[in-house]
Each structure stands twice: as C-alpha cells, then as structure tokens.
Amino acid sequence: MLISYVFSFRNEAQNINELVSRVDKSTNNLKDISYEMIFVNDKSTDNSLEILLDLQKKYPITIINMSRRFGVTPCIIAGLGYTKGEAIIYMDADLQDPPELVPTLIERHKNGADVVHTTRTKREGEGFFKLWLTKRAYKAINLFSDISLPENTGDFKLLSRKVVDHLLSLKEYDPYMRGLSIWVGFNQDFVFYTREARFAGKSKFPIFSTGPTKEFIRGLTAYSASPLYLSFFIGLFTSIISLGLIIYALISKFLGIASDGSTGILIAISFFSGVILMTNGILGIYLAKIYYEVKGRPRFIVDEVLYKK
Fold first, then answer.
1. Pick from 297, 77, 35: nearest CA to 166
2. DSSP state of 100
3. Domain range spanning residue 231?
4. Which of 1, 10, 71, 159 could form a disulfide with 163 if both were Cys (CB 3.0 to 4.6 A apart)?
5. Are 155 and 92 in contact (CB under 8 A)?
C-alpha cells in the first residue's frame, strides 16, 4: 500500500531534516507499506527549498512551489491533487504532530476507517489563555454549525483515497478543511495523543494573528446560516426594546414627568448603533464569501513541480 504525506510549509528550514527523518523511520518499519512525501512550498524566503532538493536525492520527495503565498489550506488542497496513495496523511511541518503516530493511523485505516482524526489531549508549549480561547472557539463553531466539529482535532489526519477524491471535487474557494473532513462522512475514527511543542523556530500562527482569526470565521460560517438568523433575532429583540422606550417616552411626555435624558439618549444610540454594525458585519461576511465564489478564480496557482530524478 502506498501512503502519501502532504506538508504545507513556509520557512521551516530548521525542521525539515528532522521531519523527513522521523517520517521515514515511522513508515519504513511497516510491512507492505511504501510512501511518498509531497511538500508544498508556500513561497518560503529561507533555504527550505535547498534543503528539500538535497533530501530529494535520498527520499521519495515531490516539491510543489506556489507562485505566491496562498496560505495553508490552498497548499494542502494543491498537495492532495498530486497524491497517488491509497491513503493520504497531511500534517504540519513544525513537528508538533508526531510522525510516530502514523502506524496507528494506518492500522485504523486498515480496520475500515476512511478518515482518522488525531485529537490532542494535551498541548505542550502553549499558554493557558490560548488553550482557553481555542476551546471557546470550538464551542462557538459547534453552536452555529450543522456539523459536530471535534474539539482539539486539527490538521493532522489520514484520509482514504475516496475521501480525497470527493474533497478535490468540491469547488469552494475558501473551504474550512477541518470541517470538510467531518462533512464528507464515511467511516470516521479518532486517535488521541499529546501534542508536542515546536521542534524549532517560532509559531506562524500567534493566537491574535490573521490566520487563526480567518480560520475561526471560516468555521463559524462555512456550514450554517445560523449567524444570519441570529442577527435577525437580535434585530427583532432590539426593535421590541426600542418600541418600549418610545411608549415610555410618550407616556412621560403626556404625564409631564419627562426630563432631560441626554445620558439615556447616548446609551440608546450607542446600543442600537452597535447592533446595526454587528448585524451588517455578519451580512458582510456572507456577502464576501459569495463575492469570492462568483468570481471563479482558482484557489491557488502552482509555479513548478519538482519530482525526484
């Protein structure tokens, strides 16, 4: 059986040698298993490419160079399109996800699982606040989503060939990959593990950076229109409140007990302005998704593919 590994990376020169070595060790000991590694280069500016070209002389490595920086999800999709394996494993290149878990993933696949997720029971090297915020984000996504997204289950999983073929047939411009692996269905299984700290280098996704924020919004809006309904009910609720305030103001006026209410006016204006801006923002997110979809641009552009000679 051929196993295809897909790695999306940017500036991981400090990790690549160790990653390739550990993947090779974890796979070579398995009976009747061969493998290929597909590295998708998200326009690295360090010497990651040179290191991979040197490793390619010894290991079955294919390198996909993107035309510019596209981000993790487009790179993963690009890599999936070049896989040949019966099972595909994609993971980060920073070695927080241990390649030593691969035999367990393959065993679960042999036992009938089409999607094998890895769920983190502990996350080394990450602060309490980040873990707390991540947990809240998963709960928010599940609250509004039509799928049940497992908590602490990230971008390290095994997919069967038929699952990958179905994922590649989808034409979403900005897909939420963690959710799609649940949405496709089929036989799903979970492996639990302790996530290690980065082997070397700094995180490319600080908690308040653009990447995690966009990923959260993708998850929140990708599988449900519930936020739109929420904005409607918030608007309805505030309309009822405003109607009550109008009635109160009229009664006060007729009874002659009305007084200057600049504070109340400021509070009311601030409150309703905030509600309007929030609901408009929710509408804007969905309109933006439609905007990108209808333009029909490709999700990524590959510059070149470097195969092992």
1. 77
2. G
3. 226-295
4. 159
5. yes
Say which amino acid occupies 86: E
Whole-number Å distance between alpha carbons of 110 and 112 = 5
Phi, psi of 196 (to 5 degrees): -85, 165
If pLDDT is split at 50, 70 and 90, which confidence band does 242 have?
low
Residue 168 token pair: 């590649």
Q: CA 84, CA 105: separation in Å to the nearest integer?
A: 18
Strands in 87-92's sheet, in edge-to-edge order, are 188-195, 115-123, 153-160, 87-92, 2-9, 34-41, 61-66, 302-306
- First-to-last alpha carbon distance for the chain, in angstroms, is 22
Tokens of 286: 């969905």
32 in the same domain as 10:
yes
What is the CB-side half-sphere exposure of residue 78 using CA atoms within 13 A? 29
How far, in Å, CA of 150 to CA of 118, rounded? 10
Q: What is the pLDDT of residues 264-308, one digit of tens each?
A: 565 667 666 667 767 777 777 777 777 777 777 788 888 898 987
Q: Where are the alpha helices (DSSP H) in the chain?
A: 16-28, 48-55, 72-80, 102-110, 128-144, 161-169, 177-183, 210-221, 226-255, 262-295
Residue 49 sits in the same domain as residue 130: yes
Whether the Cβ atoms of residue 249 and residue 258 lie closer than 8 Å to each other:
yes
Backbone angles phi, psi at 242, to 5 degrees: -65, -35
DSSP 81: T
Inter-axis angle of helices 16-28 and 48-55, nearest 10 = 30
The region, left, alpha or beta by phi > 0 then psi within -120 to 50, assigned to residue 294 is alpha
In degrees, to the nearest 5, what angle opens at C-alpha 285 toward C-alphas 279 and 291? 135
Do residues 181 and 273 both lie within one domain?
A: no
Is the model's pLDDT at 174 over the cut of 70? yes
Pair 164, 190 in one domain: yes
Q: Which pLDDT score is estimated for 4?
A: 94
